[in-house]
Amino acid sequence: LFKKSKLRVLLAYNDFKRTKNTYFEDLTTLDEVLAQTTGAQDTSRFNQFTGRFIYNGELGKKLAYQVGADLNHSSGWGRRIEAGQQEIGDYAGFVTVDWKLMDSLTIKPGVRYAYNTAYASPLIPSLNILHRIKRFSIRGSVAHGFRAPDLKELYMDFVDVNHNITGNQDLQAEDSWNYSLFVNWMKLTKKNAMLKLEYGAYYNDIDNLITLGIVDNNAYTYINIGEYSTIGQQISAIYRSKRWQVNVNATYIGRYNPDAQTTSVEPYSFSPELGAQLNYTIIKNHLQANVFYKYNGRLQSFYINEADEVERTIQSDYHILDASLTSDFFKQKQLRITLGAKNILNVKQVNVIGQ
After folding, report:
1. pTM of the entire structure?
2. From residue 14, how far is each of 8, 10, 81, 84, 285 by CA, in Å?
């Protein structure tokens, strides 16, 4: 819009309609009649409007700002929706300030306020700090989080041969505080290669986490977990040269066990993850090989059985491997063709001990 400002606008509209008809057919006469059983006939429709407006500007060399609005409106109709029709709106405004106190130190506070038609939304502040020391940079952040349940979590009954999930109108909104600290080191070599190492730690404290819960045999609904948190560490390494792009990362994540409040189980269950992405340029600007690998470590949790005894659930670890070749054509790369294979290790099921 002006010399030192920029306006970004996103407008999106999604309209989804699903018609379901079930018939009983006489295999001798081939006569058909509509089935009268519950849920046999249904037409569902959902639409959603999203609008986002972000304006970036500057006030001198050391102060920049961002002002924006985030508008979302969802509607649903059909037999599977409570009362046949429901709608929810969420309309937010936000502002952030990027203040460069000195060449090596930048502070970025922000605040967001939303009006939700179904839930009262609090004022949501955040604070980010970046400090650079030669090849090192340190990033720290503290942020408040809020998420209201969406239309499907509240009002939709998803019941068919494969599913039995009902909405829960008594859900409370999620409220959280999120803390993180990351330190990275970067070096450029004489051959224009880049090496970056990063270590990070984070902690998320969540009240009323929304998740799926079992309420009866094979029946699910959305529930709130009163207190929940995750804690984690991660290490990553990135290397880029003319031909190679390598990204390797490892995380160690702890998930809170709610039963730790009333039983002797450990407060957190930890599980490792390891990921790697490799891209190698075979022919410059024309042919590239890509490999993606992910290791998901053993995951454990706890539950209370019918005898009020604590039991453990363990999901085994597994590996995922994908690979592809990508070829670009013409000088401006107007045409790109990718040929690849997913799930090369043929993972079809993962063993689980317990519920």
Report:
1. 0.80
2. 20, 13, 18, 20, 36
